[in-house]
Write a structure and sequence with these properties.
single chain; 4-stranded antiparallel β-sheet; 6-stranded mixed β-sheet; about 10% strand; Topoisomerase I, Chain A, domain 4; 15 helices; AE; hydrolase; Rossmann fold; alpha/beta; globular; 13 strands; binds 2-acetamido-2-deoxy-beta-D-glucopyranose
């Protein structure tokens, strides 16, 4: 199991010397600094879309991240009518939650579930609803509150997504996963409709760089940052048995490293004075302290000039932080990197701790043991299935190449997105799991498409492999 114990205390003061240097001599920043706080009756409006792409108590952290983001925006002055929340909503009242109705995003954190609007929950958290909501297409959404981004040409949009990902895909709890290409097409339509001035997108997921790498043009007034580059894990944190660990009654990871880094920053800083780039620098350092093994590289994509704007333009600003001073004690916590667990390993870790903490001989112990064993055999099944699929289609000797080839920086993952979409959808449908372990193989399907695989041949191989390889009990 990959768990990297990391505790890095950097001098808060030194980071702020760097930031104040960035601040000088930028007239745009100064003019927006003097702008008033958000006022719903004057333009531009801020719209936000928050998406947790997973479900299950084992994935607690993604919905916790999204709820926390909601609190930041709400405290920042945004109205519920402008914040659209996609979350499965099965965590707060899960039988495993020892604190019914409460979700926390850090060990000593407040309840972030309070007041979160339930716009799209359960099966309504799906690709079609998300893309229709971003487009502002009211007739395109099914179920849910019907809330969509009804933005105008002067408005700002903030999109934040947290979940498991794989090369070229972001997870969704119901139906198919979101492909980078479909997201990009939606953003292009939104841009062509002139229905925003500028947009900021934050993405937490494994291999999240692949969503924008070689795909997001600079001329769409969109600036995106991702937790990881196109070919590395992103990381869960506040995990059981790690440091700092969740309270003993919660045996699941409470947050994700990239996500808690920007949110704990936004919680205390005066966002009218912090630029998106300053926030990026802080998050980048906290997420991948430069000489750390196993951390991830926070990436920037799209129009980076937008990063000179103040964070306030996309998240609002909490009046409580008006007199925030960088020398405060709180700030040292923002440069301390908690220990981390890869997105894929957070699942067995949860079952292991549930098993360890359950009383000897209890039904809970038996259940946790079964869950852990099922997860391990499921992984083996998925590993073997991918191996078999590649072998059937290209021959055994091609397996390493299909698994490991990474496109060079600046290039998109795949050329034929229809082929890719067909194969990953088929694989999710037939080999998929709540732990989303299968997502780590989406690159293999991209490589198969790039090598000119015959789609029918490949989908047949997927069906065959997923149904025959010692499926879990
Ligand atoms: C918002 O702006 C309008 C128009 O300028 C003004 O009348 C109103 O007082 C402002 N509201 C707040 C809360 O500042
Ligand atoms: C809105 O969604 C509906 C249903 O999917 C679709 O038929 C329609 O073309 C969409 N409208 C726009 C403007 O994209
Ligand atoms: C990037 O954004 C800035 C600020 O919004 C804008 O002035 C500039 O034209 C944009 N660049 C491109 C290539 O669209
Ligand atoms: C893949 O990861 C390596 C090491 O982090 C990095 O140098 C490279 O740029 C990445 N490739 C892409 C396409 O992001």
């Amino acid at each position: 199991m990959m768990c990297y114990y990391r505790l890095f205390v950097l001098l808060a003061l030194s980071s702020f010397v760097v930031e104040s240097r960035h601040l000088k001599g930028n007239s745009y920043e100064l003019s927006s600094f003097h702008r008033s706080r958000i006022n719903a009756t004057i333009e531009p409006k801020i719209w936000a879309v928050l998406v947790a792409g997973s479900n299950g108590f084992v994935n607690y952290r993604h919905q916790a991240d999204i709820c926390h983001a909601y609190q930041i925006l709400k405290n920042g002055g945004l109205e519920d009518e402008n914040i659209i929340v996609f979350m499965y909503d099965d965590i707060a009242f899960d039988v495993e939650n020892s604190r019914p109705g409460v979700i926390i995003n850090k060990p000593d954190g407040d309840n972030v579930y309070k007041g979160v609007p339930k716009d799209y929950t359960g099966e309504d958290v799906n690709v079609d609803n998300l893309l229709a909501a971003i487009l502002g297409n009211k007739t395109g959404v099914r179920g849910g509150s019907g809330k969509v981004v009804e933005s105008g040409p002067n408005d700002h949009i903030f999109i934040y997504y947290a979940d498991h990902g794989g090369a070229g895909i972001l997870g969704m709890p119901s139906g198919v996963d979101l492909t980078a290409k479909d997201l990009m097409n939606t953003l292009k339509k939104k841009h062509a409709a002139k229905s925003y001035k500028s947009m900021v997108i934050y993405v937490e997921a494994c291999e999240s760089g692949s969503i924008f790498e070689g795909l997001l043009p600079k001329n769409m007034n969109i600036y995106a940052i991702t937790a990881a580059n196109a070919n590395e894990s992103s990381w869960g944190t506040y995990c059981p048995g790690e440091f700092p660990s969740p309270p003993s009654d919660l045996d699941t990871c409470l947050g994700d490293l990239f996500s808690i880094s920007w949110m704990e920053d936004s919680d205390i800083h005066d966002l009218r004075k912090e630029t998106l780039d300053q926030q990026y620098q802080l998050v980048r350092r906290r997420t991948a302290v430069d000489d750390m093994v196993g951390a991830s590289h926070v990436m920037q994509y799209g129009n980076k000039t937008i990063a000179k704007q103040f964070v306030f333009n996309y998240m609002g600003a909490n009046p409580k932080n008006d007199y925030y001073s960088p020398s405060s004690d709180d700030d040292s916590s923002l440069t301390t990197t908690p220990s981390i667990v890869s997105q894929h390993d957070a699942t067995p870790l949860h079952f292991w701790h549930k098993f360890r903490n359950a009383p000897e001989g209890s039904p809970k112990k038996t259940e946790a043991h079964k869950q852990l064993m099922d997860e391990l055999s499921l992984r083996k099944h998925i590993d073997e299935s991918v191996n078999q699929i590649i072998s059937v289609v290209f021959g055994q000797e091609k397996v390493p190449e299909m698994l490991n080839t990474v496109q060079s920086a600046g290039n998109p993952l795949v050329h034929d997105w229809d082929c890719f979409k067909m194969l990953v959808n088929s694989f999710k449908k037939q080999c998929g799991s709540t732990s989303r372990y299968e997502m780590k193989y989406s690159r293999a399907f991209a490589n198969m498409c790039n090598a000119g695989v015959h789609i029918n041949h490949a989908t047949q191989a997927i069906t065959q492999a997923c149904s025959t390889n010692s499926p879990p009990p």
